[in-house]
Amino acid sequence: MTAYSPLRGRMRLSAPRGFTLIELMVGITLGLIVLAVVTTAFVNVSSNRRDMERTGRQIENGRFAMQLLADDIVNAGYFGELDPRDVGPPAAKPDPCSTSAADLKNMVLMHVQGYAAGAVKPSCVSDVRSETAVVVVRRTATCIAGDINCDAAAAGQIYLQSTLCNDELANPAISTHYIVAAKPASGASAFPLHKHDCTTVASLRSYVMHVYFIANNNNPGDGVPTLKRAELGANGEFSVVALVEGIENLQVEYGLDTNGDSMPDAVSADPGTYGGCAADPCYIANWLNTVTAKIHLLSRSTEASPRYTDTKTYPLGLQADDTQLVVGPFNDGFKRHAYTETIRMNNPAGRRES
């Protein structure tokens, strides 16, 4: 017979008991509250991070777009060894979408050409955003075809070659001093001009024609405004390239040097109509006097930000009628930032200093 142990009895009496239903419900409720607080904090942090990323991309896109335009416009009118003043102005208003080598040859002095917000745009660009400007840049590549970090001459690409040989320069016909043509695939060279020694073939520079504009869409139907560029490519054809998405507006004010000292004396969003111009000679003369371009860009986020409404207004310079252009408020969820930079066209301005 087993003896009764008081200690064993006490141990049985103090054994732990489980949670009651009320205690369990209270615990679950507290846990859900804590989970809700943590989840809300996580969602807010994630939302803020995404919003910061959107804002960062928007700002960077605006800066990048401005840099692209500035790098191109500052070199407008660069034609290597050729002084385009010797060629003289074209006889008629140039078509920036012409792919004719003869037209390209005659347009070298027209270093820049623009279309104000309300003007009819060139035929080689489409889906142009309403009430935005278009700017055209003409020049050659700053590097010689085939040099280090410069593409070799390719068949079908249009190049400019100018002579430095005194025997060739003795010909009074300016048209013989330089050539604008597509490089043939084979056979006789289309570029027979020479350097100073009259023996070495003169260098080739790629002919650059860029038409910048704002498109309504990056990809068809996506509704993302984008800075695009129509550029002269192989076989004398224009192709449109998307450069920077989220660029919603482009406006340009041009500085005109009217007294020949290389400094702007007047400003116009449309030099082609400045001073009452309507006919070609006046139109061309005004564009030839253009030495600066003040670029106004409006960058927009590509995605809307929750709980944000854009109630701001954005000044984007003067219009063709000399009134201030202000856009907004847009009253949507997209964040925006305006950029402005004045760019000097070093080549046409510098030639006026000599």
Describe the structure in brief.
By secondary structure, the chain is an alpha+beta fold.
Description:
The chain is an alpha+beta fold and 354 residues long. The protein has one domain. Helix content is 24%, strand content 25%. It contains 6 helices and 13 strands. The strands form 3 sheets. Strands 1, 2, 3, 4, 5, 6 and 7 form a 7-stranded antiparallel beta sheet that branches. Strand 6 (226-232) and strand 7 (238-245) form a beta hairpin. The longest helix is centred in the N-terminal third of the chain and has 53 residues, at 21-73. It starts with 5 loop residues before the first helix and ends with a helix. The model has no long low-confidence stretch (mean pLDDT 89).
Order of helices and strands: HHHEEEHEEEEEEHEEEEH
Structural class: alpha+beta
The domain count comes to 1
Biggest sheet layout: 7 strands, antiparallel
Tell me the distance between the termini. 128 Å
Tell the overall outline.
elongated
Q: List the total number of helices.
A: 6
Name the beta content range: 25-35%
Mean pLDDT rating: 89
Using only CA atoms, what is the Rg?
33 Å
Helix content: 10-25%
Number of strands: 13
Write the SSE topology.
Layout: H1 6-13, H2 21-73, H3 101-106, E1 112-115, E2 134-140, E3 158-162, H4 166-169, E4 178-182, E5 205-215, E6 226-232, E7 238-245, E8 247-256, E9 266-268, H5 280-288, E10 290-300, E11 314-318, E12 324-327, E13 336-344, H6 346-351
Antiparallel strand pairs: 1-2, 2-5, 3-4, 3-5, 5-6, 6-7, 8-9, 8-10, 10-13, 11-12
